[in-house]
Protein backbone atom coordinates (compact mmCIF):
# COMPACT_ATOMS: atom_id res chain seq x y z
CA UNK A 1 0.00 0.00 0.00
CA UNK A 2 1.34 3.44 -0.88
CA UNK A 3 0.70 6.53 1.09
CA UNK A 4 0.47 9.78 -0.78
CA UNK A 5 0.50 13.24 0.69
CA UNK A 6 -0.50 16.52 -0.81
CA UNK A 7 0.63 20.02 -0.03
CA UNK A 8 -2.11 22.58 0.20
CA UNK A 9 -2.02 24.97 -2.70
CA UNK A 10 -1.07 28.52 -1.71
CA UNK A 11 -4.00 30.83 -1.16
CA UNK A 12 -4.44 33.11 -4.14
CA UNK A 13 -5.16 36.75 -3.26
CA UNK A 14 -8.79 37.52 -4.03
CA UNK A 15 -9.34 40.65 -6.08
CA UNK A 16 -12.62 42.21 -7.14
CA UNK A 17 -12.17 44.16 -10.37
CA UNK A 18 -15.00 46.63 -10.71
CA UNK A 19 -15.47 48.17 -14.15
CA UNK A 20 -17.39 51.40 -14.61
CA UNK A 21 -19.28 52.47 -17.72
CA UNK A 22 -16.69 54.61 -19.47
CA UNK A 23 -14.84 54.27 -22.77
CA UNK A 24 -11.70 53.25 -20.85
CA UNK A 25 -13.46 50.02 -19.83
CA UNK A 26 -11.57 48.21 -22.60
CA UNK A 27 -8.31 48.79 -20.68
CA UNK A 28 -9.70 46.75 -17.79
CA UNK A 29 -9.09 43.67 -19.94
CA UNK A 30 -5.32 44.21 -19.85
CA UNK A 31 -5.43 44.89 -16.12
CA UNK A 32 -7.44 41.71 -15.64
CA UNK A 33 -4.90 39.68 -17.59
CA UNK A 34 -2.02 41.10 -15.55
CA UNK A 35 -3.81 40.22 -12.31
CA UNK A 36 -4.72 36.67 -13.30
CA UNK A 37 -1.36 35.85 -14.86
CA UNK A 38 0.42 36.97 -11.68
CA UNK A 39 -1.51 34.45 -9.60
CA UNK A 40 -4.48 36.43 -8.31
CA UNK A 41 -8.03 35.13 -8.18
CA UNK A 42 -10.10 37.83 -9.90
CA UNK A 43 -13.87 38.30 -10.03
CA UNK A 44 -15.02 41.00 -12.44
CA UNK A 45 -18.02 43.06 -11.31
CA UNK A 46 -19.01 45.49 -14.07
CA UNK A 47 -21.79 48.04 -14.17
CA UNK A 48 -24.50 47.75 -16.81
CA UNK A 49 -22.81 50.64 -18.60
CA UNK A 50 -19.48 48.81 -18.66
CA UNK A 51 -21.12 45.82 -20.36
CA UNK A 52 -22.09 48.10 -23.25
CA UNK A 53 -18.37 48.68 -23.89
CA UNK A 54 -17.01 45.18 -23.08
CA UNK A 55 -19.17 42.06 -23.08
CA UNK A 56 -19.48 39.70 -20.14
CA UNK A 57 -18.04 36.86 -22.25
CA UNK A 58 -14.71 38.69 -22.54
CA UNK A 59 -14.41 39.19 -18.79
CA UNK A 60 -15.47 35.60 -18.10
CA UNK A 61 -12.95 34.16 -20.55
CA UNK A 62 -10.10 36.19 -19.05
CA UNK A 63 -11.02 35.62 -15.40
CA UNK A 64 -12.49 32.12 -15.46
CA UNK A 65 -15.27 33.42 -13.20
CA UNK A 66 -18.92 34.29 -13.81
CA UNK A 67 -19.70 37.93 -14.55
CA UNK A 68 -22.83 39.85 -13.64
CA UNK A 69 -23.91 43.38 -12.81
CA UNK A 70 -27.16 42.29 -11.19
CA UNK A 71 -27.28 41.61 -7.41
CA UNK A 72 -30.23 39.24 -8.03
CA UNK A 73 -28.15 36.82 -10.12
CA UNK A 74 -27.21 33.69 -8.09
CA UNK A 75 -29.03 35.32 -5.19
CA UNK A 76 -28.72 32.18 -3.06
CA UNK A 77 -24.98 32.91 -2.81
CA UNK A 78 -25.70 36.44 -1.53
CA UNK A 79 -23.10 37.97 -3.88
CA UNK A 80 -23.94 41.57 -2.95
CA UNK A 81 -22.52 40.84 0.52
CA UNK A 82 -20.10 37.95 0.08
CA UNK A 83 -17.97 39.42 -2.71
CA UNK A 84 -16.93 42.44 -0.66
CA UNK A 85 -16.59 40.48 2.58
CA UNK A 86 -14.23 37.91 1.08
CA UNK A 87 -12.04 40.20 -1.04
CA UNK A 88 -8.41 41.07 -0.29
CA UNK A 89 -8.60 44.10 -2.59
CA UNK A 90 -11.26 45.90 -4.60
CA UNK A 91 -10.07 47.79 -7.68
CA UNK A 92 -12.47 49.87 -9.76
CA UNK A 93 -11.03 50.84 -13.14
CA UNK A 94 -12.37 52.92 -14.71
CA UNK A 95 -14.21 54.74 -11.94
CA UNK A 96 -16.54 57.21 -13.64
CA UNK A 97 -17.77 60.45 -12.09
CA UNK A 98 -21.16 58.80 -11.56
CA UNK A 99 -19.65 55.77 -9.85
CA UNK A 100 -17.45 57.93 -7.61
CA UNK A 101 -20.51 59.96 -6.61
CA UNK A 102 -22.45 56.80 -5.73
CA UNK A 103 -19.55 55.45 -3.68
CA UNK A 104 -19.14 58.73 -1.82
CA UNK A 105 -22.80 58.84 -0.84
CA UNK A 106 -23.28 55.16 -0.08
CA UNK A 107 -25.71 54.42 -2.90
CA UNK A 108 -26.08 50.74 -3.76
CA UNK A 109 -28.21 50.10 -6.83
CA UNK A 110 -26.15 47.38 -8.51
CA UNK A 111 -23.75 44.58 -7.62
CA UNK A 112 -20.62 46.75 -7.75
CA UNK A 113 -21.87 49.52 -5.46
CA UNK A 114 -23.19 46.88 -3.03
CA UNK A 115 -19.75 45.28 -3.06
CA UNK A 116 -18.11 48.61 -2.23
CA UNK A 117 -20.32 48.95 0.84
CA UNK A 118 -19.42 45.51 2.19
CA UNK A 119 -15.66 45.53 1.53
CA UNK A 120 -13.39 45.38 4.60
CA UNK A 121 -10.22 45.37 2.46
CA UNK A 122 -8.38 48.22 0.72
CA UNK A 123 -10.44 49.86 -2.03
CA UNK A 124 -8.68 51.44 -5.01
CA UNK A 125 -10.70 53.69 -7.31
CA UNK A 126 -9.05 54.68 -10.60
CA UNK A 127 -10.83 57.67 -12.14
CA UNK A 128 -11.37 58.14 -15.87
CA UNK A 129 -13.47 61.01 -17.23
CA UNK A 130 -13.24 64.26 -19.14
CA UNK A 131 -11.18 67.02 -17.55
CA UNK A 132 -14.22 69.20 -16.85
CA UNK A 133 -15.90 66.33 -15.00
CA UNK A 134 -12.77 65.58 -12.95
CA UNK A 135 -12.27 69.23 -12.02
CA UNK A 136 -15.93 69.88 -11.19
CA UNK A 137 -16.36 70.86 -7.50
CA UNK A 138 -18.84 68.02 -6.98
CA UNK A 139 -16.34 65.40 -8.16
CA UNK A 140 -13.52 66.93 -6.17
CA UNK A 141 -15.73 66.99 -3.05
CA UNK A 142 -16.66 63.34 -3.58
CA UNK A 143 -13.01 62.34 -4.04
CA UNK A 144 -11.98 64.19 -0.89
CA UNK A 145 -14.81 62.55 1.04
CA UNK A 146 -13.78 59.08 -0.10
CA UNK A 147 -10.14 59.72 0.73
CA UNK A 148 -11.11 60.92 4.20
CA UNK A 149 -12.65 57.49 4.74
CA UNK A 150 -9.49 55.67 3.69
CA UNK A 151 -10.42 54.88 0.09
CA UNK A 152 -7.44 55.19 -2.27
CA UNK A 153 -8.42 57.33 -5.24
CA UNK A 154 -5.59 57.41 -7.76
CA UNK A 155 -4.62 60.62 -9.48
CA UNK A 156 -5.73 60.38 -13.12
CA UNK A 157 -3.27 60.67 -15.96
CA UNK A 158 -3.11 63.48 -18.50
CA UNK A 159 -3.34 62.90 -22.23
CA UNK A 160 -5.71 62.04 -25.03
CA UNK A 161 -9.34 61.63 -23.98
CA UNK A 162 -12.29 60.77 -26.22
CA UNK A 163 -12.60 62.59 -29.51
CA UNK A 164 -10.01 65.31 -30.00
CA UNK A 165 -9.90 66.33 -26.34
CA UNK A 166 -6.79 66.11 -24.20
CA UNK A 167 -6.22 66.90 -20.55
CA UNK A 168 -6.31 65.45 -17.05
CA UNK A 169 -8.75 62.61 -16.56
CA UNK A 170 -7.27 59.83 -18.66
CA UNK A 171 -7.15 56.38 -17.09
CA UNK A 172 -3.58 55.55 -15.91
CA UNK A 173 -1.95 52.76 -17.86
CA UNK A 174 -2.94 49.22 -16.78
CA UNK A 175 0.68 48.46 -15.84
CA UNK A 176 0.66 51.38 -13.39
CA UNK A 177 -2.69 50.37 -11.89
CA UNK A 178 -1.36 46.83 -11.52
CA UNK A 179 1.73 48.07 -9.66
CA UNK A 180 -0.42 50.09 -7.26
CA UNK A 181 -2.74 47.12 -6.72
CA UNK A 182 0.20 44.83 -5.93
CA UNK A 183 1.56 47.40 -3.49
CA UNK A 184 -1.76 47.57 -1.63
CA UNK A 185 -2.01 43.78 -1.45
CA UNK A 186 1.50 43.61 0.01
CA UNK A 187 1.04 46.63 2.27
CA UNK A 188 -2.48 48.01 2.67
CA UNK A 189 -1.25 51.17 4.47
CA UNK A 190 1.24 52.12 1.74
CA UNK A 191 -0.67 55.07 0.26
CA UNK A 192 -1.88 57.46 2.97
CA UNK A 193 -2.59 61.02 1.78
CA UNK A 194 0.29 62.20 3.95
CA UNK A 195 2.17 64.34 1.43
CA UNK A 196 -0.45 66.94 0.49
CA UNK A 197 1.30 70.22 -0.26
CA UNK A 198 4.79 68.66 -0.36
CA UNK A 199 6.85 69.53 -3.45
CA UNK A 200 9.13 66.72 -4.62
CA UNK A 201 11.75 66.44 -7.37
CA UNK A 202 13.14 63.02 -8.31
CA UNK A 203 15.76 61.95 -10.82
CA UNK A 204 15.48 58.57 -12.53
CA UNK A 205 17.11 56.44 -15.20
CA UNK A 206 20.67 56.41 -16.50
CA UNK A 207 22.51 59.26 -18.21
CA UNK A 208 24.27 58.77 -21.54
CA UNK A 209 27.47 60.57 -22.45
CA UNK A 210 27.85 60.75 -26.27
CA UNK A 211 31.05 59.69 -28.00
CA UNK A 212 29.76 60.41 -31.50
CA UNK A 213 26.31 60.69 -33.10
CA UNK A 214 25.55 56.97 -32.54
CA UNK A 215 27.67 55.81 -29.58
CA UNK A 216 27.61 56.71 -25.91
CA UNK A 217 28.90 55.78 -22.47
CA UNK A 218 25.98 54.64 -20.33
CA UNK A 219 24.77 52.27 -17.65
CA UNK A 220 22.06 49.67 -17.06
CA UNK A 221 19.62 51.73 -15.01
CA UNK A 222 16.04 51.27 -16.24
CA UNK A 223 14.51 54.11 -14.24
CA UNK A 224 11.91 51.81 -12.66
CA UNK A 225 12.89 52.65 -9.08
CA UNK A 226 12.74 56.39 -9.69
CA UNK A 227 9.38 56.01 -11.39
CA UNK A 228 8.08 53.97 -8.45
CA UNK A 229 9.20 56.72 -6.08
CA UNK A 230 7.40 59.32 -8.19
CA UNK A 231 4.24 57.21 -8.46
CA UNK A 232 3.99 56.55 -4.72
CA UNK A 233 4.67 60.19 -3.84
CA UNK A 234 2.02 61.42 -6.27
CA UNK A 235 -0.56 58.98 -4.93
CA UNK A 236 0.29 60.16 -1.39
CA UNK A 237 -0.65 63.65 -2.51
CA UNK A 238 2.70 65.28 -3.34
CA UNK A 239 3.38 67.61 -6.26
CA UNK A 240 6.05 65.67 -8.15
CA UNK A 241 8.57 66.61 -10.83
CA UNK A 242 10.42 63.66 -12.34
CA UNK A 243 13.67 64.30 -14.22
CA UNK A 244 14.00 61.21 -16.41
CA UNK A 245 17.20 60.18 -18.19
CA UNK A 246 16.79 57.41 -20.78
CA UNK A 247 14.25 55.25 -19.01
CA UNK A 248 13.27 51.85 -20.39
CA UNK A 249 10.08 52.67 -22.30
CA UNK A 250 8.19 53.63 -19.15
CA UNK A 251 4.86 55.47 -19.31
CA UNK A 252 4.73 58.73 -17.40
CA UNK A 253 3.36 58.12 -13.88
CA UNK A 254 -0.12 59.54 -13.40
CA UNK A 255 -0.16 62.96 -11.81
CA UNK A 256 3.58 63.55 -12.30
CA UNK A 257 5.35 66.27 -14.31
CA UNK A 258 8.06 64.52 -16.34
CA UNK A 259 11.09 66.29 -17.79
CA UNK A 260 13.30 64.31 -20.20
CA UNK A 261 17.08 64.70 -20.18
CA UNK A 262 20.02 62.87 -21.74
CA UNK A 263 23.46 63.58 -20.33
CA UNK A 264 24.73 64.18 -16.83
CA UNK A 265 25.09 67.90 -17.51
CA UNK A 266 21.50 68.12 -18.73
CA UNK A 267 20.29 66.26 -15.63
CA UNK A 268 22.35 68.55 -13.43
CA UNK A 269 20.75 71.68 -14.90
CA UNK A 270 17.23 70.26 -14.64
CA UNK A 271 17.69 69.11 -11.05
CA UNK A 272 19.10 72.43 -9.87
CA UNK A 273 16.22 74.32 -11.51
CA UNK A 274 13.54 72.05 -10.01
CA UNK A 275 15.24 71.78 -6.61
CA UNK A 276 14.98 75.52 -6.03
CA UNK A 277 11.29 75.15 -5.10
CA UNK A 278 11.32 71.57 -3.77
CA UNK A 279 10.79 70.39 -0.22
CA UNK A 280 12.29 66.95 -0.96
CA UNK A 281 14.99 66.03 -3.47
CA UNK A 282 15.62 62.41 -4.45
CA UNK A 283 18.64 61.51 -6.57
CA UNK A 284 17.70 58.02 -7.81
CA UNK A 285 19.24 58.37 -11.27
CA UNK A 286 22.45 56.55 -12.17
CA UNK A 287 24.59 59.49 -13.27
CA UNK A 288 27.69 58.71 -15.31
CA UNK A 289 30.87 59.48 -13.37
CA UNK A 290 32.79 60.40 -16.53
CA UNK A 291 32.14 61.83 -20.00
CA UNK A 292 34.32 62.11 -23.11
CA UNK A 293 36.44 65.24 -23.21
CA UNK A 294 35.22 65.95 -26.72
CA UNK A 295 32.34 64.84 -28.93
CA UNK A 296 33.21 63.59 -32.38
CA UNK A 297 30.67 65.13 -34.75
CA UNK A 298 30.75 62.23 -37.23
CA UNK A 299 30.44 58.50 -36.69
CA UNK A 300 33.83 57.06 -35.73
CA UNK A 301 34.77 54.66 -38.51
CA UNK A 302 35.92 51.14 -37.90
CA UNK A 303 39.37 50.38 -39.31
CA UNK A 304 42.07 47.74 -39.06
CA UNK A 305 44.13 49.97 -36.82
CA UNK A 306 43.59 49.98 -33.07
CA UNK A 307 41.11 52.69 -32.01
CA UNK A 308 42.38 55.87 -30.45
CA UNK A 309 41.99 55.98 -26.66
CA UNK A 310 38.96 57.94 -25.44
CA UNK A 311 39.94 60.77 -23.11
CA UNK A 312 37.52 61.17 -20.23
CA UNK A 313 36.79 63.91 -17.73
CA UNK A 314 34.80 63.81 -14.50
CA UNK A 315 31.15 64.73 -14.45
CA UNK A 316 29.93 67.01 -11.65
CA UNK A 317 28.73 65.34 -8.45
CA UNK A 318 25.09 66.39 -8.71
CA UNK A 319 24.05 65.01 -5.33
CA UNK A 320 26.89 66.76 -3.52
CA UNK A 321 26.05 70.03 -5.30
CA UNK A 322 22.39 69.77 -4.30
CA UNK A 323 23.38 69.12 -0.68
CA UNK A 324 25.71 72.12 -0.71
CA UNK A 325 23.01 74.38 -2.20
CA UNK A 326 20.11 73.18 -0.08
CA UNK A 327 17.96 75.65 1.76
CA UNK A 328 16.83 75.30 5.36
CA UNK A 329 14.32 72.50 5.89
CA UNK A 330 14.99 70.78 2.57
CA UNK A 331 15.28 66.97 2.82
CA UNK A 332 17.66 65.21 0.43
CA UNK A 333 17.71 61.49 -0.42
CA UNK A 334 20.58 59.84 -2.25
CA UNK A 335 20.99 56.39 -3.78
CA UNK A 336 24.07 54.18 -3.72
CA UNK A 337 24.33 51.26 -6.14
CA UNK A 338 27.21 49.25 -4.73
CA UNK A 339 29.07 45.99 -5.12
CA UNK A 340 31.30 44.48 -2.48
CA UNK A 341 34.93 43.57 -3.05
CA UNK A 342 37.87 42.07 -1.20
CA UNK A 343 38.17 45.12 1.05
CA UNK A 344 34.58 46.03 2.01
CA UNK A 345 31.00 44.91 1.68
CA UNK A 346 28.11 46.82 0.12
CA UNK A 347 26.91 48.34 3.39
CA UNK A 348 30.36 49.59 4.32
CA UNK A 349 30.65 51.42 1.03
CA UNK A 350 27.18 52.84 1.59
CA UNK A 351 28.12 54.20 5.02
CA UNK A 352 31.19 55.87 3.52
CA UNK A 353 29.11 57.43 0.74
CA UNK A 354 26.55 58.81 3.20
CA UNK A 355 29.32 60.48 5.18
CA UNK A 356 30.91 61.82 2.01
CA UNK A 357 27.74 63.16 0.40
CA UNK A 358 26.07 64.66 3.46
CA UNK A 359 22.48 63.86 2.49
CA UNK A 360 19.74 63.15 5.05
CA UNK A 361 18.92 59.64 3.84
CA UNK A 362 20.82 57.20 1.66
CA UNK A 363 19.24 54.17 -0.03
CA UNK A 364 21.88 51.47 -0.52
CA UNK A 365 21.30 48.78 -3.13
CA UNK A 366 23.47 45.79 -3.96
CA UNK A 367 23.74 45.60 -7.76
CA UNK A 368 24.86 42.98 -10.27
CA UNK A 369 23.71 39.41 -10.96
CA UNK A 370 20.10 40.44 -11.58
CA UNK A 371 19.90 42.82 -8.63
CA UNK A 372 18.43 46.34 -8.69
CA UNK A 373 19.04 47.23 -12.38
CA UNK A 374 16.63 46.09 -15.13
CA UNK A 375 14.46 44.01 -12.76
CA UNK A 376 11.05 44.51 -11.14
CA UNK A 377 12.10 44.00 -7.50
CA UNK A 378 14.61 45.55 -5.16
CA UNK A 379 16.07 45.36 -1.66
CA UNK A 380 18.63 47.25 0.38
CA UNK A 381 19.14 49.46 3.40
CA UNK A 382 18.04 52.91 4.51
CA UNK A 383 20.87 54.83 6.18
CA UNK A 384 20.11 58.09 7.96
CA UNK A 385 22.45 60.93 8.79
CA UNK A 386 21.94 60.32 12.51
CA UNK A 387 23.21 56.74 12.27
CA UNK A 388 20.06 54.64 11.93
CA UNK A 389 20.18 51.67 9.54
CA UNK A 390 17.01 49.93 8.40
CA UNK A 391 17.08 46.88 6.12
CA UNK A 392 14.51 46.80 3.32
CA UNK A 393 13.46 43.22 2.53
CA UNK A 394 13.19 41.99 -1.03
CA UNK A 395 9.99 43.18 -2.64
CA UNK A 396 8.61 45.32 -5.43
CA UNK A 397 10.20 48.65 -6.22
CA UNK A 398 6.94 50.27 -5.15
CA UNK A 399 7.35 48.70 -1.71
CA UNK A 400 10.86 50.11 -1.46
CA UNK A 401 9.53 53.49 -2.57
CA UNK A 402 6.91 53.43 0.18
CA UNK A 403 9.62 52.62 2.74
CA UNK A 404 11.67 55.57 1.52
CA UNK A 405 8.76 57.99 1.83
CA UNK A 406 7.99 56.64 5.29
CA UNK A 407 11.52 57.62 6.31
CA UNK A 408 11.37 61.19 4.92
CA UNK A 409 10.79 63.76 7.64
CA UNK A 410 10.05 67.44 7.03
CA UNK A 411 10.45 70.24 9.55
UniProtKB/TrEMBL annotation:
Residues 1-199 are annotated as: Phosphopantothenoylcysteine decarboxylase. Pfam families: DFP, Flavoprotein. Keywords: Decarboxylase, Flavoprotein, FMN, Ligase, Lyase, Magnesium, Metal-binding, Multifunctional enzyme. GO terms for cellular component: phosphopantothenoylcysteine decarboxylase complex. Residues 14-179 form the Flavoprotein domain. GO terms for biological process: coenzyme A biosynthetic process; pantothenate catabolic process. The keyword Transport does not apply. The keyword Nucleotide-binding does not apply. It comes from the Bacteria. It catalyses: (R)-4'-phosphopantothenate + L-cysteine + CTP = N-[(R)-4-phosphopantothenoyl]-L-cysteine + CMP + diphosphate + H(+); N-[(R)-4-phosphopantothenoyl]-L-cysteine + H(+) = (R)-4'-phosphopantetheine + CO2. Pathway: Cofactor biosynthesis; coenzyme A biosynthesis; CoA from (R)-pantothenate: step 3/5; Cofactor biosynthesis; coenzyme A biosynthesis; CoA from (R)-pantothenate: step 2/5. InterPro entries: CoaB-like_sf, CoaBC, DNA/pantothenate-metab_flavo_C, Flavin_trans-like, Flavoprotein. Its EC number is 4.1.1.36, 6.3.2.5. CTP binds at residues 289, 299, 316-319, 335, 353, 357. Residues 195-408 form the DNA/pantothenate metabolism flavoprotein C-terminal domain. Its cofactor is FMN; Mg(2+). One of its GO terms (molecular function) is FMN binding. Residues 200-411 are annotated as: Phosphopantothenate--cysteine ligase. In the N-terminal section; belongs to the HFCD (homo-oligomeric flavin containing Cys decarboxylase) superfamily. PANTHER family: HOMO-OLIGOMERIC FLAVIN CONTAINING CYS DECARBOXYLASE FAMILY (PTHR14359), PHOSPHOPANTOTHENOYLCYSTEINE DECARBOXYLASE (PTHR14359:SF6). Catalyzes two sequential steps in the biosynthesis of coenzyme A. In the first step cysteine is conjugated to 4'-phosphopantothenate to form 4-phosphopantothenoylcysteine. In the second step the latter compound is decarboxylated to form 4'-phosphopantotheine. Catalyzes two steps in the biosynthesis of coenzyme A. In the first step cysteine is conjugated to 4'-phosphopantothenate to form 4-phosphopantothenoylcysteine, in the latter compound is decarboxylated to form 4'-phosphopantotheine. This is Coenzyme A biosynthesis bifunctional protein CoaBC.
Amino acid sequence: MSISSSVDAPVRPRVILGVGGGIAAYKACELLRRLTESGHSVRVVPTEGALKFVGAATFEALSGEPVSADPFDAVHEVPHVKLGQNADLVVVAPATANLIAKAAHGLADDLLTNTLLTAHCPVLLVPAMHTEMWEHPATQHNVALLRSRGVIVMEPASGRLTGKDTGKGRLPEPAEIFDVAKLLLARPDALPRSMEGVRVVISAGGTREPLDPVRFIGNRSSGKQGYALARVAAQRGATVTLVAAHVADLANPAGVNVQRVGSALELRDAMHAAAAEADVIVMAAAVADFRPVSLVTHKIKKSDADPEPVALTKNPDVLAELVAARREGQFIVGFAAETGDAENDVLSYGRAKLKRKGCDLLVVNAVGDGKAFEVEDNAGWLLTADGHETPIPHGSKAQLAAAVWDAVTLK
